[in-house]
Amino acid sequence: MFDALQLASIPAEDEALRPKVRALIAEHVLQRPITDRVRSWMGVDAAFSRALAEAGLLGLTVPAAYGGGGRGPFARYVVVEELLAAGAPVGLHWIADRQSALLILGFGTQAQKQLYLPRICRGEIFFCIGMSEPGAGSDLASVRSRAERTEQGWRLTGQKIWTTSAHLCDYMIALVRTSGAPGDRQQGLSQLIVDLRAPGVAIRGIEDATGHRDFNEVFFDGVELPADALLGTEGAGWAQVNAELAFERSGPERIWASAVLLDGWIAHLKRSGAGEARVERVGALTTQLAALRTLSIALTARLAAGERPLTEASLYKDLGTSFEQAIPVAIADDLGSHPDEPVAPELRAALVEALALAPTYSLRGGTREILRGIIARGLGLR
Amino acid sequence: MSELLASFERLLDTAGGDALMPALDVAGFLDALRELPLREIEPLLRALGRRAIDAPVAEAMAARAVPAPSRALLAVIATAEMAGIGERLLDMSIEHANTREQFGRPIGKFQAIQQQLAVMAEQVMMTRIAAQTSCAHGLEPPLAAAAVAKSAASSAAPTIAGIAHAVHGAIGITREFPLHRFTARLHALRMSHGSESYWNRLLGSARLQADAQNSLDFVRSI
Predict the structure, then answer these.
(1) Does the annotation mark A341 as catalytic?
(2) Which candidate in A310, A322, A381 is best for mutational testing of the B interface (most B CBs within 10 A)?
(3) Which domains, from first to last, does chain A contain?
(4) Residue A348 binned pLDDT confidence (cut-offs 50, 70, 90)
């Protein structure tokens, strides 16, 4: 299995994107407080998303014919790692850029591609994920939301939950049942592009432990959708949603969630001084980060070669999110082990924020246990 | 598999004990690093690991290629051997999980075992990529590159060895069953040429002294 994962490096033409991204980061991100920047994935800033689009940095992997950059996965890799390492507010365009656009590109009709992709690349429309339901978390195939055929198209009834930024988005790509019964599991599921402003859609925020309202419940009460709301093939929703999850899991972004906190702490150590234990701890986290980044580059090279390394992507996501979660835990111990040392209130607040957010890192996009099950299958154990 | 690796493995599998070093010398393998870049020899180093060969083959190769091999180079070489050991231990553990039956089925059908083997595979993959990355630097690896590699491999080693033993059960610690040779070698290499804490101190110190704007800049410079 590991023979396929070869050492790779980022092509020079993609490295060349860094100055452009950094200029935008300097203009829009660095002055934001660290407590904002630790929330990068959840951070929302429409002006920033549009600035990225104007600079040609959204939809980089979408073909130029649909308004995208027409580039390979490494172009997006460079942009994403720069944005996340700086804690840029990427939440608004994140889902469309990472997975919805690729899903539409892969399964959509010519008309759907022309309708959605250019606007995604211009930062004009934003998408959210429509997978989880109250009774369908890790067991995604048990979704109960249901769309019935009508003369005009579809009538959708049901509910989604944990939908990040649904209240700010324009569309959801929802996995719903279009035939059969919940007991049919993977059979009879389809993906629909749901206009979130259609009558019958109700969005209700869920307040999280830090007081933010990023999560939502989304209710569909007989929502009338046109026939071309269907994405891809009716009944092929399970295969399509797995392709979508592959985009979600194999990205380069699984190591940077706590990077802003790490750098805030390192700045603190530079001011306060670091004895041997602290130096060692900085080294332990930095060696892990460097090794994981090499792994993510090797994985991206496989994607660039047109492969879908599902097992390796799961291995990487589990390792990466464990690392992201270890950072706030380590920093909490470090700061707590120097009780008489002054710590900037922003750093403390960012730590509290990161500790509260960290559990989600190994939930979103497939829980740790689900990923390890996928790995076990890849190892020939299931 | 390359012809070089195939003939190296044939020799390792036929010449045992005291005959190994002379046989490798005669065949020219101890001079391999004088003729080929380290990244091309890396699969051979993993082949040593996959057999838990205790003889100082890799050290001899390094000593023939450079007069006084640096600790960084020896650490990088040890990382590659550790990657080989990890691969073999994972193979052995999967094989055992798929054949050993308890409660009427192979233990590999139990999620508790599957989840552990998944964790083991993650750590083996980290060790493997660390070996490949650091061997690409050749015979004079920068200290930071050696630090990342050996720290990653040494940090992974106790998890890899621990899960291998957990999956194998009591048979794993018998003299008769070969598992202990691999885990003992892995623990020994973890300590050799700097354990993870040694290299973490070194890299941590470099990070704290660096002018890097952020951690991304720093790791890109390694």
Answers:
(1) no
(2) A381
(3) 2-125 (1.10.540.10), 129-237 (2.40.110.10), 250-378 (1.20.140.10)
(4) very high
